[in-house]
Write a structure and sequence with these properties.
- The protein is mainly alpha-helical.
- Helices cover 51% and strands 0% of the residues.
- It has helices at 21-27, 38-42, 53-67, 73-85, 92-105.
- Belongs to the FlgM family.
- This is Negative regulator of flagellin synthesis.
- Pfam families: FlgM.
- Residues 48-101 form the Anti-sigma-28 factor FlgM C-terminal domain.
């Protein structure tokens, strides 16, 4: 939310208000600026935001993760080949352990 402090005192009085003129003038310093259209909200207001070094690092990590493929095609090809030639061995104890851990987390 952006508050334009330069327009607080020059804002037109609210219609339908039950306040008296004296209380409107006294309360005008605490009133928020009127809602802005999307075009006005995106316009630069002279304010700036500085991100911490940690936030910048997190942004870089997030960007690099977004660039990574969802599937490791080389690993998939290796597994397909191992299954096709019969060299892929299933560790039943490991599978059972993972299933039990998954159930315990529920």
């Amino acid at each position: 939310m952006v508050i334009d402090f330069s327009r607080l005192n020059s804002a037109p009085p609210l219609t339908g208000s039950t306040r008296s003129n004296a209380s409107q003038e006294a309360g005008s310093a605490t009133q928020a600026a009127p809602a802005k259209s999307p075009e006005q909200a995106s316009a630069p207001s002279g304010e700036s935001v500085h991100l911490s070094q940690e936030a910048q690092q997190l942004q870089k990590i997030s960007d690099s993760l977004r660039e990574q493929p969802a599937v490791d095609k080389n690993r998939v090809a290796e597994l397909k080949q191992a299954i096709a030639d019969g060299s892929y061995k299933v560790d039943s104890n490991r599978v059972a352990s993972k299933l039990l851990n998954m159930e315990a987390e529920r």
